[in-house]
Amino acid sequence: MTSVALAFSGGLDTTVCVSLLKEEYGYDEVVGVTVDVGQPESEFEEAKETADAHGLDLHVVDAKDEFAELCFDSVRANATYQGYPLGTALARPVIANAILDVAKEEGCDALAHGCTGKGNDQLRFETVWRASDLDVVAPVREMGLTREWEKQYADEKGLPVQSGNDGVWSIDTNLWSRSIEGGELEDPSHVPPEDIYEWTETPQGETGTVDIEFENGYPVAVDGEEMDPAALIEHLNELAGQYGVGRTDMMEDRMLGLKVRENYEHPAATTLLTAHEALEQLVLTKEERDFKAQVDQQWSNKGYQGLVDAPIVKALEGFIAETQTRVTGKVTIKFDGGRARPVARESDFSVYSEEAASFNTKTVGDITQEDATGVAKYHGFQSRLANAAYENATKDKPGLATDGGDDVAEETSAGGQTQSGDEE
Ligand code: ARG
Which residues are in the Arginosuccinate synthase C-terminal domain (predicted)? Predict the structure, then answer.
């Protein structure tokens, strides 16, 4: 008896995979695994219904809290990829690990996903799975299936398919973001219809504010109320979503080099990332901020690749953790016209000194305004030296004229004239 654990969502791809794994791949048993990373309740119901109709043994694993914690790690890294807050990307390693655990418990021989050969998710799943000694199978990729083919196959076999949008859009939802792709959205010039959005209202001009409190860079409370990570994210998705905050319509560069048009909704992520960065502006030094921007970018790239377990991520997080010891405080965010922007921030660790910055104070400690005169004299000194030396060295040498650009331009236009003269 051979068995395979399948990443199962109840959507078109994975539903078709259940049959294919038996009929084409010859597995005797398919164990479906749905991992809860904060999808809406309806998705689990659909997955269960579809599984029942298939006679599929379905395991539902709750990984919501683990995923929420990873989302908060990403906040400390101000993590976005080309503007997208990484919901799908960060969820994949969590899902892959949960499926691997079930597969081991159930004594499965193999692991399967329903990803195509074009996307990122195949890579994110398999990097986790290939660390085990189980086989990895990817029917949609290996059989070169299209969505059209799948729809027809599902029809012929009478397979129940996720009813929601009749398979028009390919949707991936978790706590951190909702992604909508496929159908007409594949044309980048096609304006998305309003009905692709479920988390965000069309901004109507109302405004609102929210206070976010952080401890060591982790969000801990909203409007004075302490909440667990998952609850805090859900609460903010609801709240910020009402103001239409957190829509992204972008061209995304996938790992394999393809560009794709992606639409996302992520109200909580946008709010928390904006607030976190605003607090860092207050408490971190310029050098820390400059260097951290590079660290954050590296973290984000690894997050996008599904490689949050890479050794470098631990190393990056060492730096991040050190900086976050002072990222404790409160930020007020204003929701306005579909945007979230910081309008107030406070922290015991604030580097800002009103006394130092104010126009109304003469001295800071024993430093006076006049002390800046020496600094101002030296500022740019080396550039002035270099410019003067160049001027001097090229003064009597026309061939080395200061602005060589003009010479080139003259030559080109002269050449052009000769040519047109020749033709005449
Ligand atoms: N392109 C995104 C990523 O790689 C999200 C893909 C989500 N999948 C979907 N079927 N909507 O992270």
Answer: 169-385
